[in-house]
UniProtKB/TrEMBL annotation:
The keyword Nucleotide-binding applies. InterPro entries: AAA+_ATPase (IPR003593), AAA_lid_NorR (IPR058031), CheY-like_superfamily (IPR011006), Homeodomain-like_sf (IPR009057), HTH_Fis (IPR002197), P-loop_NTPase (IPR027417), Sig_transdc_resp-reg_receiver (IPR001789), Sigma_54_int (IPR002078). The modification 4-aspartylphosphate is found at D53. This is Sigma-54 dependent transcriptional regulator. Keywords: ATP-binding, Nucleotide-binding, Phosphoprotein, Transcription, Transcription regulation. One of its GO terms (molecular function) is sequence-specific DNA binding. Residues 147-375 form the Sigma-54 factor interaction domain. It holds the Pfam family Response_reg. The keyword Transcription regulation applies. It comes from the Bacteria.
Amino acid sequence: MATILIVDDDDAFREGLAETLTDLGHRVVEAATGQAALQMLGDGQPADCVFLDFRLPDLNGLDVLERLGEEPALKAIPVVMLTAYASCDNTIGAMRLGAFEHLTKPVGRRDIAVLLERVFSANQPRALSSHAGTPFLDESETDRPQLLGISTAMRTVQKQLGRAAMTDSTVLITGETGTGKEVAARVLHASSNRRAGPFVAVNCAAIPHDLLESELFGHRKGAFTGATTDRVGRLVAANGGTLLLDEVGDMPTAMQAKLLRTLQERHVTPLGTNRAIPIDLRVVAATHRDLDTMVAAGQFRQDLHYRLNVVALHLPPLRERVADIVPLAEYFLASAVRATGRPMHLCAEAQRMLVEHAWHGNVRELKNAMERVCSLAPGPTITADDLSFLRRPTAAQERPVPSDLVELPLAEAVERVERAVITHALALANGNRADAARRLGISRQSLYTKMAALGLS
């Protein structure tokens, strides 16, 4: 039995969670405000775990988490952040401050049981308290970089970014072109202790190979033909901050060897001089290439791969995070609308077209599509006709549709598909409707309505 503190101002949610935890065999204490929770813990109230809501009437949940981290006697308590409005900022912020997990309400009983098993197994052999045996997209407008997404895949990436931001470890970000690798790197920098320093990005694929060495390491006047002045390299320019080596898989092999030595020794020697300049920076590498395959083919140095692949982050393609497509489209549309001043929104058929599109260009293609339609749509409602430029499927892009569905009336075909998809999601969620709704990218109430209409119990 463990003692668990619930901090939430929603009486109904707090009582429901307390009942679940009690049924699971734990002792529960409750607080309705952040100050009350801090006071209880400061006065010696034992707690083996804290469930902490993000939105509280007095302190922000992140403020409470930060204060807990400042107290040596309290910082070891695992904290589970809860929110009904998960965003890039609050997810990454929670993980950066040391939260054990960040969950979106509502949370099912099975999920809580599995989570607590993780919490207590991760914190062994820490003893339980001495009283253990007794009776998207709701993203605010901001100039900060944001890695947007509400899908399970993106929430995982956001949590990994938050944890990585707590360290200075080198990070390797992989993913297809257009998935947001540079955005992820900027979010990591903005969330880290180096955020006051510079963020310097180098696209290794865009710079000619014969100029890349000078670009990275700098040179002295006269070092080579055309070197008419001294030049500070990007590695020195990033000192105290973060250096992004974008498309590092396109770096020439000879340059890889010099970069490896520099990363190992943390010194830069500009061309035309023997004077080494010490550097203190965090390196983030990004690539759309499969570096493991390149290493096996002798196209990328294995030792450099080891040096870069300390913390690995993979950004999934947009087609694997369908729940993010419409929220992202609405976000990009709202950004474009702010520039034009014309209020616009997507009709249901337009949303369906967006979800069904293959998005080979990923998030970048979606952003460009929303900017285009905002400029060309004649009215405030974006229709399927306004998105007709997306209707260019090739044989490889077309998704096969079973012949028995093609022959049905549209309403009956849609009903069959909805029934199959909902049943599959419920099976994956072991009957947990809240979890199934999250997998489907719809609200729990919408799931209940669809189940009732389809006659699913």
